[in-house]
Amino acid sequence: MAAQFRSYVWDPALIVSQMVLLQAGYYSSLGLWLALLGTLGSTGPSLQQVFSDEILGFSTPPGRLSMMAFILNALTCALGLLYFIRRGKQCLDFTITVHFFHLLGCWIYNSRFPSTLTWWLVHIVCTALMAAIGEYLCMRIELREIPLNSAPKSNV
User: Fold this and answer.
1) What is the widest separation between alpha-carbon atoms in the chain?
2) What pTM was estimated for this model as a whole?
3) Torsion angle, CA of 78/83/89/94, rounded to 10 degrees?
4) CB of 74 within 8 A of CB of 129?
5) What's the alpha-carbon Rg for the chain, to the nearest Å?
6) DSSP code of 84?
7) At 67, is the secondary structure helix, strand, or coil?
8) Residues 77 and 134 sit within 8 Å (Cβ to Cβ)
9) DSSP H helical segments within the chain, as ranges?
10) Contact 99, 127 (CB under 8 A)
């Protein structure tokens, strides 16, 4: 068998560990952004800001700060895709998985399916941002030139 460039081996343990790492990074960075932005609005981070669909909105300052935190979190998680996934083809898959598990978490926390339009719009925009920027960053790494002159020259 000939060796293939960038061959992919099916490794379920690696995939599950990457999903857990990204999910933990998602909630950690979201909590950090909510805490940092909460100092602007003099509110502390809470589970309501993370999981409630009713808090997101343009009409209240906590709603606007939460929306800003979700958007900044999408940018931060795009960097997580770059450092932990490193494959442009898999960025959309992992992004959808992270947001799907967040949807399930919101559904369980609120005991009902999220129904507000702003919640859906914010999360669709965040999913698109995270996937597009993560894929762009990963593709930049994948498309770098492969150095062919890495062997030392011999003086013959």
Assistant:
1) 76
2) 0.83
3) -60
4) yes
5) 20
6) I
7) helix
8) yes
9) 12-41, 47-51, 61-80, 91-110, 117-142
10) yes
What phi and psi values does residue 143 have, to the nearest 5 degrees?
-90, 10
Q: Which residue has the tokens 């597009």?
A: 132
Supply 1's token pair: 């068998």
Cα separation, 120 vs 47, whole angstroms: 18
User: What are the structure tokens assigned to 152, written together?
Assistant: 């030392």
- How far the first Cα of the chain sits from its last, in Å, is 35
- Indicate the length of the chain as a whole number: 156
Tokens (6 digits) for 103: 């949807």
Distance CA 7, CA 24 (A): 28
Question: Of 88, 90, 94, whose CA–CA distance to 25 is shortest?
Answer: 94
CA distances from 109 to 5, 102, 106, 114, 155 (A): 45, 10, 5, 10, 70
Are the CB atoms for 22 and 84 separated by under 8 Å?
yes
| Token output for 77 | 């998680």
What's at 31, amino acid-wise?
Answer: G
Blockwise average pLDDT, block size 10, the chain, 156 residues: 58 90 95 89 81 87 89 94 87 94 94 92 95 92 75 63
What are 44's two structure tokens? 């502390």
pLDDT at position 5 is: 52
